[in-house]
Amino acid sequence: MKNQLRRVWQELRQGKNVEVYLTIAVAFVILCLHLFHVTSINAVLSAILATLVLLAIANLHSRRGVEDLGASVLRLEIGTLADKFFQQWNEAEFSDFINRAKRVSMLAVANNRFLSENQIQFTELIRRGGEIRALLIDPTGAVLNMSTTRSVGASTQPNYVKMHVEMSKEKLREFQIGATRSNQVRLKYIDLLPSIIITWLEFDHDPGMMLLTLTAFRQPTASRPSFTLSEEKDSKWYKYFKDYYENIWEWEGTKDIALS
Question: Are both 135 and 54 inside the same structural domain?
């Protein structure tokens, strides 16, 4: 009882539930007056009406509060949902993931820059027995011109894109030279324009993860939104993109490129 009274006092000091406690107090006073035959029916009715007004005002304030809160939450969700889902490529963070991976699989137009910037991590991956798989566009296929159509800057030039595919191949060849067994590094060309860029990492003791980057049409590479999928937390969509990659890898239209 003492705790309940203390709580009532604290709520009154904070201005909480004042109308409720006022209603209880008025009702108690009316009851006492009625028991002692001190009040008239008109006074009782007036007190009841006043109490109903207080309750109506309290209910109105509560309803408006709920509506305002709902509107605020809706604005918050609309304003930040996409920002929470999409992200930009974090090179430093991804380098750390490569350090722990057992296999890295990539699907891209050409990824010479990514391979070069993480050369130390990929070299160490191969040294400890890990694997690299890469699916890149065929520099001699019809896909080359399709790729340049949607690009900006130097990437609109077929020879520039072709050069970067060749540079990617040479970088992968360097990694294979340091391998302890054959086919630790594999490359396949596809005459197919990727609908999404995939960097897929598998680990020995942790769930796999993927970084997926949306393709663009005449927009800078750096502006493209990316999102990550966890094998553990996003199992349904992780499997979807895993199957997507494996289906292309096993597709009879790919060209297996020798690196040794």
Answer: no
pLDDT in tens, 31-77: 666 666 655 666 666 666 666 666 666 665 666 666 666 665 565 55
CA distance linking residue 26 with residue 20, whole number of Å: 10
Find out whether 207 and 230 touch, Cβ atoms under 8 Å: yes
What is the domain count for the chain? 2
Q: How far apart are CA 79 and CA 82, in angstroms?
A: 8
What range does the domain containing 28 cover?
Answer: 2-84
Mean pLDDT, residues 108-135 taken together? 93
Euclidean distance between CA atoms 142 and 188, whole angstroms: 16
- Residues 166-200, buried b or exposed e (16+ Cβ, 10 A)? ebbbebbeebbeebeeeebbbbbbbebbbeebbbb
> Strand 226-230's sheet: what is its strand order?
226-230, 209-214, 196-203, 101-108, 131-137, 185-190, 255-257
**pLDDT tens digits for range 81-101:** 555 555 555 566 677 889 899
Predicted local distance difference test score (pLDDT) of residue 240: 95
Domain end among 45, 68, 84: 84
Among the listed residues 187, 186, 194, 106, the one whose alpha carbon sits nearest the alpha carbon of residue 143: 194
Residue 34 sits in the same domain as residue 160: no
